[in-house]
Amino acid sequence: MHEKRPTKKPPSILSLVEPRTQPMTLSEALERDDHLRFTIAELVDRVGSVQELETLDDEPIAPEPFAWSMIDQAHEPVVGRLRATIAEKIGAFLDAEYAVIVDRLLAAAATAPQRPLLGSTKDDRLAAGLVWLALATNDDVGRRLRWRASTIWSLFGTSNATNIGQKLCRAIAEPADRDASPRWSHHPDPSPALRSPRFLRGTTRRRIIAERNQFEQELREEFERRPLRRRADGGVAMQATSMQVVGAVKGLSEAGRAAVTLVFENNGRPRLIAISVPDAHDLIDSLTWALNKKLPSLT
Q1: Are 207 and 218 in contact (CB under 8 A)?
Q2: What's the pLDDT tens digit per position in 234-255?
Q3: 243-275 burial, b if ≥16 CB within 10 A, otherwise e?
Q4: For 280-294, b where at least 16 C-beta lie within 10 A, e where not — what string?
Q5: What is the pLDDT of residue 80?
Q6: Enclosing H/E stretch for 271
Q7: What pLDDT is recorded for position 208?
Q8: Helix/strand/coil for 260
Q9: Where are the alpha helices (DSSP H) in 142-276?
Q10: Which among 39, 109, 254, 274 has most CB atoms closer than 10 A?
Q11: What is the pLDDT of residues 172-194, one digit of tens each?
């Protein structure tokens, strides 16, 4: 006759509960090493920082006068010529938001330390590269998109000026957020990253906001899928699958060790879990301890 084992207090499950009471933030997600880290980093790279991404709005850019006060005397002639060229060649095809964005890019290029407007590049190519940059950074250049690059070159009567636009982008772009800069892009031809919402139309920012919201939803769902998580009130939320106990069988494992197989049923499908004999005794203790506890109050 076997001697009855005394019931011992089981170890606390609290050691398995993460202290986090809220889903991971976008800043925290940038510390991960999975697809979310890289795709969020792409969005951050487009607007400049996590803070900009979190507070981004989709209000259309309102008309504004050109910032002549920012332009020094050395740049005034070329800036004036470029504005006139853009207005003549393509101004009729640019909406009010793009007109402001092109002006902002022109002012930014004129004040960039590299002074990219004062080289030997012809005005038509500079203007074409600037307009390409404004359109491309807003995802408006490419096949089956609003603009083709060849259309821009044709309107300005110049050859491919993509390299000019890319050079202007490097001169204008805000410094990269070292922690957020993506190591790769999931887009085959990513848009130029100026790292500022100042150069993004309302519709472009709306798309970025939708992607941001999708990632935040993924982080919320990931948090809620955790089987053990800390509640904001200090309690523990448990997410478990309801099953019916069928029985238990004692036998030998493939390694020849004694084991107990627990058999459950879930929606007509059997679920089997094998544990060692010592763990089976610990399970009995845990069940006995739990059954002897009073139910918590719902109020």
Answers
A1: no
A2: 777 777 888 898 889 998 888 8
A3: eeeeeeeeeeeeeeeebbebebeeeeeeeeeee
A4: beebeebeeeeeeee
A5: 97
A6: strand 269-276
A7: 96
A8: strand
A9: 149-156, 162-172, 202-224
A10: 109
A11: 997 765 444 443 444 445 578 89
